[in-house]
Amino acid sequence: AQTVTQSQPEMSVQEAETVTLSCTYDTSESDYYLFWYKQPPSRQMILVIRQEAYKQQNATENRFSVNFQKAAKSFSLKISDSQLGDAAMYFCAYSNRFGNEKLTFGTGTRLTIIP
Amino acid sequence: DAGVIQSPRHEVTEMGQEVTLRCKPISGHDYLFWYRQTMMRGLELLIYFNNNVPIDDSGMPEDRFSAKMPNASFSTLKIQPSEPRDSAVYFCASSLYWQGVGELFFGEGSRLTVL
Asked: How many Cβ atoms sit within 10 Å of the Cβ of residue B87?
């Protein structure tokens, strides 16, 4: 079974600074999807960014970007110019290409923004 | 669209009582998922539906749990009888595609406390 590991239970960053959240995964598949979901205090989880493994280019969404290292099975999330609204739990998730297995979530990283 | 709507947002009940959680998915989404989130176990997929048909309920913890989707716009998750260990946040999510392929749209969750 695939596993997703987020080794940083908590992180903090000064407002306007950059922070990187780590995620590693284990799979024998060559083609798959990776996701970062954000869960703010309101509890509603929101997709932040999505990466397809066959694409070498790292995905970017405004201030959010990923560093996808396929050989190392690493998928980190970089948040630039951190804002107070970025404070949340961040979950890394994995799914195989064909979607015939459950989406596997990591345990999450709680990000605090320091004003 | 208003997004995925869940009710109630909070539920406090006593052990042995029946609990019914409700979900209205986003119109047009073919997939509906029920998740449970706890500190100990993280996010767990309980069951999912495709076109109102239950496809995989292997994540349902016990026979005390049941889920239905009588039509495309409504689903329920029922716990009968409830136990203190069922205390958790229950999320409903919907998507156009299988969860591993496309974006999941989550509701705000129902926080259940069983005394």
From this structure: 16
